[in-house]
From TrEMBL:
Residues 122-138 have a biased composition (Basic and acidic residues). Keywords: DNA-binding. Residues 122-150 are annotated as: Disordered. The keyword DNA-binding applies. It comes from the Bacteria. Coiled coil: none annotated. One of its GO terms (molecular function) is DNA binding. It comes from Catenuloplanes atrovinosus. This is DNA-binding protein YbaB. Gene3D superfamilies: Nucleoid-associated protein YbaB-like domain.
Length: 150
């Protein structure tokens, strides 16, 4: 007469234990592969954005670092502070797009169910989407393509 602990997947069932270990290893291997895929896709991520008036074009990498800045001829017709604000706003927009794309990559590769995936997504969001300053200038509140509307 066999007891439940000796057969049928109990603690003393070596074959059942091996099956559980193989399943666990399979999940770990898949998570490692998914994490590598996520990392590779995030590492290669770049976004280029132009402002709506053609004053500048910026390229940022997956960390939000500015990689390239191109200024258009229109900057000669506007005040330097408008150019500076436009550049900063365009960088913020590029960072927002990088954050959005990063969230998509995280969801596509490691999913959103695990605590680790949620922690990665939150860290990316905090780094690329800082809390807005309510006193800071916002797009559309100044330069209209023809001049400064203070």
């Amino acid at each position: 007469m066999e007891t439940g602990a000796l057969s049928g997947g109990g603690i003393l069932d070596p074959e059942g234990a091996m099956d559980r270990m193989r399943a666990w290893k399979g999940r770990i291997d898949k998570l490692a592969a998914d994490t590598r895929a996520m990392s590779e896709r995030l590492d290669g991520l770049r976004v280029t954005v132009s402002d709506e008036h053609g004053l500048c074009e910026v390229t940022v990498d997956n960390t939000g670092a500015l990689l390239d800045l191109t200024l258009g001829r229109g900057i000669q017709r506007v005040a330097p502070e408008v150019v500076a604000r436009t550049i900063m706003d365009t960088i913020r927009l590029a960072k927002t797009q990088i954050a959005d794309r990063s969230q998509e990559i995280i969801a596509e590769t490691v999913g959103t169910d695990s605590a680790a995936a949620r922690a990665i997504a939150e860290r990316v969001d905090r780094r690329l989407r800082p809390e807005p300053d309510p006193d800071e200038w916002r797009p559309g509140s100044g330069y209209d393509g023809h001049g400064w509307r203070g």
